[in-house]
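Researcher: Go.
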Amino acid sequence: MKLQGRILICLLVIMSLGATPAYAASSRGRQDEPNPETREAQIVEIFQQLNLTPEQDSQLKAHRNRHEKQQEELKGRIRAKKEELKQELQKPDLQMEKINQLHAELKALLGQKEDNRLEGILEVRKILTPQQLVKFLDLIGKHHPGPEGKGKDRE
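Model: Structure:
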């Protein structure tokens, strides 16, 4: 896989994890995700290995905080919309117009979440040098081997 393609895939993984190099624990309590303390330790370790300037460190922290707040707010809206759709689907008399409207609103929210993820990726790329970005992606790959499974080689 070309470097740019790998960079985009890795950054998408990172951003899906809350714009940080660690998994965010979900409300469902997934077993494969580290707790907040482990997550924070991974972030600190990765950032230390990147030899960030104080300005870069500050920019990444500010970006991370902004992005996490945006994503959490969107996740809440998505959960609420899913619940609203679920309630509508459980009614004895289906109102297809209402169901279609709720579904369209849910798709728009999911699209907005993906847009925010991409914006976050692009912001991280602006902060890191090309060398730091390559090292960052390598370190992220070690912490998060991806959907292929832990320990499997990735292209």
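Model: Helices lie at 3-16, 36-49, 54-89, 96-127, 130-143.
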